[in-house]
C-alpha cells in the first residue's frame, strides 16, 4: 500500500477506462489525488462538467482528492516538454506531499514518457489500457455509448422537441419515438394542470407558473435516464401561445410571458419538429373548438412565436406514417 498516489488526465470526456483506473488506483494508496488537466484555450468540455463527473464517480471514496491544472495552449501539440516540467511542479505543490506512485495507462510506456520525465522520484504503475479513448468518443459518442458512465451520458443526449397546434399528433408521436429509440420522453405538463378546474377556460394564473416550471424540471429529470436521445412534447413557448389565446384580457399575462421567455432563453434543443395541421382534428373532450375552426391561423401564430425567439424548426406533414418516417430520418441523421 502506497501513502500518496496521483492519477491525471484531461477527461475530455471521462470514460469507463478512466473510471476503472481510478477504482484500481484508489485501492492501492491511502490518498489518491486526481488531477484534471484543462486547456482553457482549447475546445474542451467545461471544467465544471468534468469536475462533476469525477466527483460523482469518486464521492464514495474518502481517500480521493480532486485538483485542477489549467494551461493556455491552443492545441495539444503546443503543450511541450518545458510546460510538462513546469506543470508537474505545480501538481506537486498542489498535492503538498511526496507523491509515492503515479498511475497511468500503459500507452504512456511508448515514446517520450511524460511521467518518468516529470515524476522521477515516484514509482510508475501502468494499467492495461482499454480499446477506447476520449478521441474516439468525441468522434462519435453514440457509437461508444456503453463506454460512457451514466453521469456523463446526459452531456451527449440529443434533445428533440415536437411542437404544433392542437390535435396534430404531438403526444402520440412523442411516445412512439421514445419506444422506437428505447429512450425516455416528456409529455405535455399542461394537459393535466390546465384541467384543475375541469376546463381550460377557468385556469388560474398560478396554473401557468406550474406548467412552465414543471415542464422544465421534468426535462431535467428525464435526460438523466435518456438513451442517446430525449423526446419532448412541446415547451414553454407553446404554453405562452395558450396563455395568449385563453387569456387575452388577463392582467397577469405579461408577467408569465417574462417567465416563459426566461425559460426559452436557457432551453437548448438539437432538433425541433413542427407538425403541420393536415391530419384530422380529433376532439378528445379537452381540445378547443375555436382552434379547430382556424387551425392554419393558429399554427401560423405558433410559428411566429418561435420565429420571434430565433428557434429554427423542421416542418413535417402528411399522414401519420409519413410523418413518423420523416422524423425518424431526421433523428437518425442527428445521431450519426
Structural summary, described in words:
The protein has about 325 residues and is α/β, with parallel strands linked by helices. It has two domains: about 1-140, Rossmann fold; about 155-335, 3-Layer(aba) Sandwich (Rossmann fold). About 45% of the residues lie in helices and about 20% in strands. It has helices at about 15-25, 45-60, 80-95, 115-120, 135-140, 155, 170-180, 190-195, 205-220, 235-245, 255-265, 290-295, 295-310, 320-335; strands at about 1-10, 30-40, 65-70, 100-105, 125, 160-165, 185, 230-235, 270-275, 315. Strands 3-2-1-4-5 form a five-stranded parallel beta sheet, with helices on both faces. The protein has a five-stranded parallel beta sheet with strand order 7-8-6-9-10, sandwiched between helices. Helix 9 (about 205-220) runs parallel beside helix 11 (about 255-265) and helix 10 runs antiparallel to helix 11. The longest helix is centred in the middle third of the chain and has 18 residues, at about 205-220. The radius of gyration is 26 Å and the shape is elongated. The model has no long low-confidence stretch (mean pLDDT about 90).
